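Hello again,

I reread your note about wanting to compare the complex against the isolated chains. To keep things tidy I'm splitting this into two emails, and this first one only covers the full assembly. Below are the input lines as submitted, including protein chains and any nucleic acid or small-molecule components. They are followed by the predicted structure of everything together. The single-chain runs will come separately.
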Amino acid sequence: MKVLVAVKRVVDYNVKIRVKSDESGVDLANVKMAMNPFCEIAVEEAVRLKESGAADEIVVVSMGPKACQEQIRTAMALGADRGIQIETDEDLESLAVAKLLAKVVEEEQPGLVILGKQSIDSDNNQTGQMLGAITGMPQGTFASEVNLGEGIVDVTREVDGGLQTLSLKMPAIVTTDLRLNEPRYASLPNIMKAKRKPLDVKTPADYGVDVTPRLKTLKVEAPAQREAGILVSSVDELVEKLKNEAKVI
Amino acid sequence: MATLVIAEHENGALKGATLNTVTAAQQLGGDIDLLVAGSDCGAAAEAAAQVAGVNKVLLADADCYNHQLAENLAQLVTELSSGYSHILAPATTTGKNFMPRVAAALDVAQISDIVSVEGADTFKRPIYAGNAIATVQSSDAVKVITVRTTAFDAAGEGGSASVEALSAAHDAGVSSFVKEELAVSDRPELTSAKVIISGGRGMANGENFEMLEKVADKLGAAVGASRAAVDAGYVPNDMQVGQTGKIVAPELYIAVGISGAIQHLAGMKDSKYIVAINKDEEAPIFQVADYGLVADLFDAVPELEQKL
Ligand SMILES: Cc1cc2nc3c(=O)[nH]c(=O)nc-3n(C[C@H](O)[C@H](O)[C@H](O)COP(=O)(O)OP(=O)(O)OC[C@H]3O[C@@H](n4cnc5c(N)ncnc54)[C@H](O)[C@@H]3O)c2cc1C
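Full-complex prediction:
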């Protein structure tokens, strides 16, 4: 079985971002970039499937400017076999990403597509589900456990009330939640090896997909700042403040 | 202009998240219809008909909608979409699951997690874990939107909408329900609780959460947790507050042994009052706390319980 994994290059999750003073967006100049944490989990899951013998090839795809090849190489260092970069400077919306992925799915015919449940920049949580609608594939979103069977995959999902397990006919889509696995680090020899793995570069036009955005960002503001609070010196003082000042208990 | 709101319901009752979503719909203007889809959900449809401001309730009662399987529910909503300018659902794990499927089937963008309605086509939504708020304008014919429920008040009662039963049953036949393990608790739900007390890695183990539960009993509070506490297995995943857990905005949020990582703050910084109890005075949680107490939680929490 072939597994397709989609990865996104985003601001490193430790970075405290700042909005630009003209409110046109977030200041990304000289900011550390990395693979979206949920995508790391997706890569790890695919690698584990390969190690267990359930998968025989892992194809990793990323979309964006040339720099996203870094994240493709990272995925290869972790165990992906080959990569596809779809190069564009357009700020891709989830719908465009899903349409491009659907074309890759058509070409590659994977048994499983694994994606992160959301990217930590746009926080959309859409791409996997949209890919499902376009391809007709079933989806197991927010996965904390994935079990392969004969032509089916059971996915345990983190839902608001607890956990839910679904059985999906393959080919299927899985989007990862944080507790699906703990990603490994790439070893130096594997990072070196990854440099020689095949990487195809395509464009949205190669796939005949129109990636024009549907949403226009009018402005990006900093959120309302909370007013500085105070330190209390004892539990008594805390209870007194909550009762008499905040009046919340 | 007309809006279709997809209701969330459980055991014959509407979930609170639906009422917040109706309020967002009211801010758009135009008629509001509510879709109740599920199996054996007639009682929920009756409840939906009482919600103030609802024009009509559509009831799709069929086995294939049980457990809100995304593949089947999305087909139903897509089919119903004609005639609506907006389709709204709460940004719960259910709404997040099926709504993007509806959007893609309609070939439109989804606007996730809106926190305000600026106009019929313009909305505000948080990005970067809430560290920036984007104002976005949609050029699509149908706006498919999920709503951050804490940003909108709950709609009241007093409606008397008609209920129209639909006969359509879409079973895509590609997914099926196996089982669920749902948390049972007498406490208020995290997302609607007025008071929340949450524990982090500082709690050191699951048993120690009993200290928080005792405080919660006295305050009628819900109990939450940080990701670290859930990852360590102290408590189940449904208690996680944050960027990837639940978004909460209670009157009072008490963070105990939580450092205040960006991703945790993303889920609770809109709380009216924040209290932090942490032994490290440098912990970033103190930067957002109205009242901070630098103390060992194993002393402070039992004392707090006593003095309430
Ligand atoms: C993609 C992504 C998504 C994430 N999503 C979430 C999310 O939704 N929610 C979330 O919470 N996190 C999330 N995280 C994780 C987040 O970055 C932090 O790792 C996590 O919030 C830390 O949890 P914590 O504060 O409990 O633990 P720590 O950061 O380890 O803090 C523990 C705190 O307890 C204090 N403490 C210890 N012992 C005591 C004591 N005896 N008395 C008093 N204080 C004590 C310490 O001083 C410390 O401040 C996410 C991370 C990533 C990468």
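For quick reference: Residues A 13, 37, 120, 178; B 200-202, 226-229, 240-245, 257-259, 261, 263-264, 267, 278-280, 283, 296-298 surround flavin-adenine dinucleotide (CB under 6 Å).

B.
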